[in-house]
Amino acid sequence: KARLAQQELFKERGVSPLAGCLPLLLQMPLLFVMYSVIQNGLTNIDPSAMLRVFGTQIIPLTCNNLNAAGIPDLSLGPCINTVIPILGTVVDVSLPSTFFDIGIPGTGIVLGLSILAIASAALQLVQSRMMLPITKPEDDDPNTKIQRQTMLFLPLISIAYGGFLPAGLFIYWITATIFSIIQQYLIVGWGGMFPFFGWNPGFATGHAPRFPVSMPPPPEPSKRAAILTDAEKKTTAASTIRPRERGRQGRRGRRR
Questions:
Q1: Which residues are paired to 45 by β-bridges?
Q2: Among 36, 65, 105, 208, which has the highest number of CB atoms less than 10 A from its own CB?
Q3: Which residues pair with 100 in a beta bridge?
Q4: Is 105 part of any domain?
Q5: Domain total for the chain?
Q6: Rounded CA gap, 183 and 25, in Å?
Q7: Residue from 41, 82, 80, 43 nearest 64 by CA
Q8: d(Cα 209, Cα 184) in Å, to the nearest integer?
Q9: What is the dihedral of CA 205, 208, 212, 213, to 10 degrees?
Q10: How many Cα neighbours within 13 Å face the side chain of 101?
Q11: Are strands 56-57 and 52-53 parallel, antiparallel or unpaired?
Q12: Does the residue 151 lie in any domain?
């Protein structure tokens, strides 16, 4: 009954449970394409064709990897310099950037910890908790607890990717997550970010977002029944009426 009431409420409000998954599904093909373009473009001899749109060169490149015969030579290095300074250190964004490596004997697999991966996981944790609805401390709904625990551990999985994914991909994730956090803060505020392990700061109490989104008012009780179709009304009535079962005692004493 609780699930049916929840579905009815979603229908009245015009909310789809799959609406939150749609942006992620739309981004997944783009992420695969971007990963391939970044991986091939950073190590390409001459990626000028990737930066040409309808015959117009968007970003001019001057590649210095030509040999004496004027032919591009991969041994002279890629056209794009992938080494950039980050926080006082030099990082090659086309390779994984780790500070602690753990090798699995006999497999050739090396797992490592990356500062960029940890920063990306922390920002994704903040974003995922801000997307949760605000709950009261006395709320003991098990579904809400499971949802909050899932949102707590899912962003931490990206830490395991730091050992084999290029650093440039984490820089993109960090930039996109910071933009999403700012957007989420301006529209809905802190959301379900706090309390966080019992910590509820004063600046988050009674915070009003700068661009709040108002929810549509619920329909009036007289109009609520008009929203349901005839088939839904019959289904609702059938689920609330318990059929009478005739036992043996009801057949005793019957005259034939």
A1: none
A2: 65
A3: 113
A4: yes
A5: 1
A6: 20
A7: 80
A8: 9
A9: 40
A10: 11
A11: antiparallel
A12: yes
Domain-embedded: residue 127: yes
Tokens 């473009």 belong to: 41
Which DSSP symbol is given to 112?
A: E
C-beta contacts of 88-93 below 8 A and 24+ residues apart:
91/167, 92/167, 93/42, 93/166, 93/167, 93/168, 93/171
Global model pTM greater than 0.90: no
Residue 89 falls within a domain, yes or no? no
**pLDDT, one tens digit for every residue, the chain (256 residues):** 677 777 777 777 666 666 667 767 777 787 777 777 766 766 677 777 777 778 887 777 777 766 777 666 666 666 777 777 765 667 788 778 887 777 666 666 667 788 888 999 999 988 888 887 776 656 666 776 777 777 777 788 888 888 778 888 888 889 999 999 999 888 888 887 777 767 777 777 777 777 777 766 665 655 555 555 666 656 555 555 555 555 555 555 555 5
Q: How many CB atoms lie within 10 A of CB 77?
A: 14
